[in-house]
Amino acid sequence: QWPIDGDLEGCILARYIPNIGEWTIFTHTQLEKLQKREIKKPTPHTSTPTTPISDWYIPPPNPAHRLSKESLIKQLHLRCVKIDEKENKHELVKKLESKLMINMHANNEVLVEVLMDKVDNKTQQ
């Protein structure tokens, strides 16, 4: 709350959790002590807009480029992911995305280890 009249004029009233508990009163003096530097109005830098030379072309989604259910099953089998033949295409896509994310994270971890080894070797030399 931001009282504008009475004893609490200029104070901020706040609660830890909305609509639960007692109000905590922050006076103007307390708020000034919390800030480390003077508050200044920002002056953002703006630039003049440009006109693009060529039009942007975003092709519409093409159903022909989407994986079929059979292709999804094949990709999951290649990655040793167990599937239930009753799963629909959406569930199979989720499984494939999950497996790809796991592989991506594993590859990133290996890359970090290789980089750390190279840094350690240079440090020791």
TrEMBL record:
The ranges of region (Disordered) come to 36-60
The superkingdom listed in its UniProt entry is: Eukaryota
- Protein name as annotated: 4900_t:CDS:1
Query: What lineage does UniProt assign to this protein's organism?
Result: Eukaryota, Fungi, Fungi incertae sedis, Mucoromycota, Glomeromycotina
